[in-house]
Amino acid sequence: MTEEAATPELWNDPKYRKTLIQMMESQAYRELAAALMFGYGLQFVPSLKWLKFMTWHIREEMEHYEAVVKQYEEFTGESVEPVVNARLDKKPIPFAQSWYELAMAQFLYDRGGFWQLQEYQDCSFHPYRNTIQKILKEEAGHQDLGERIVVELSQSGEFEDEKKPIFAKWLRIGLLSFGRPKTEGNRYAMEVGLKRRDSGEVMQDFLNDIKPAVRSCSLQFPDPATLEMEFPDDLDWSL
Fold first, then answer.
1. In Å, how far from its chain's centre is CA 100?
2. I want to staple 181 with a disulfide (CB 3.0 to 4.6 A). Which of 125, 133, 200, 208 is the partner?
3. Number of H helices, E strands in the chain
4. Is the dihedral of CA 185, 187, 190, 191 positive or negative?
5. Is the per-residue pLDDT at 3 higher than 60?
6. SS3 of residue 112 by DSSP
7. What would the mean pLDDT of 39-48 be, rounded to a whole number?
8. Mind listing the pLDDT tens digit for each residue in 4-21?
9. What are the backbone dihedrals phi and psi of residue 202, each rounded to the nearest 5 degrees, phi first?
10. Element (DSSP H or E) covering residue 227
């Protein structure tokens, strides 16, 4: 992708616009879904310390959602909210049903979104690039907190019966953030500089990133076939 290609002429190309719009719609969905999920989960938070963190995190997710809403409207002249609400009706995010599950969701769903957004930080549509870089800077400050809670709770021995299915559930949801690997849409987005790498490569970085916590929790990755997703054949699940 050359700097000359990142021009308003390219930005107005129908395929480029469609791809960028899809990216923004997906991000808006993830931001609002996270805020709703964490909001529902407040009822399970056991202490003031973590209530303060979770409420702050919800507010941050809403601010990021608002930033994407504004970016979308500036680019399309339309609101993304009806699109997001329709997608949430069709594919609602699961709500955590315990403090342990909320911590796992905060760890894996939030971490998956963070890795996905990093692929857009050099986006050839510069206004969106600026929005993504601001969000990433803010997200980077709390990436280890969900992991820390999950590891502490897992090591307590109180969640032995539930930790495996809850981990598999939110691992799948986190991996879904990256989309299907090796698609034509992936190739095009990379060619025009909207994203850096194929989804499969990002999946691998995400898995590598969480492996230390998985080991600390005495967990194992589930059989990939049970996750009912498309993965690259060479994805390394070893611990």
1. 19
2. 200
3. 10, 0
4. negative
5. no
6. helix
7. 96
8. 445 667 878 999 999 999
9. -70, -40
10. none
Pull the structure tokens for residue 217.
Answer: 């929790």
Residue 132 above 60 pLDDT?
yes
The rounded distance, in Å, linking the Cα atoms of 100 and 217 is 12
Contact indicator for 31, 90 with CB cutoff of 8 Å: no
Q: How far apart are CA 114 and CA 211, in angstroms?
A: 16
Q: From CA 58, how far away is CA 35, in angstroms rounded?
A: 5
How much is the pLDDT for 8? 67
Provide the token pair at 239: 């611990």
Domains and CATH numbers, the chain: 3-227 (1.20.1260.10)
Contact present, 216 and 155 (Cβ < 8 Å): yes
pTM over 0.90: yes
**Residue 168: pLDDT above 60?**
yes
Residue pair 107/170 in contact by the 8 Å Cβ criterion: yes
| Tokens 């209530």, located at residue | 51
CA 191, CA 1: separation in Å to the nearest integer?
6
Q: Is 44 exposed, middle or buried (0-12, 13-18, 19+ CB in 10 A)?
A: middle
- DSSP per residue, 113-140: HHHHHHTTTT-SSHHHHHHHHHHHHHHG
pLDDT over 70 for what percent of the chain? 96
pLDDT tens digits along 27-36: 999 999 999 9
* Residues 6+ positions from 211 with CB-CB distance below 8 Å: 239
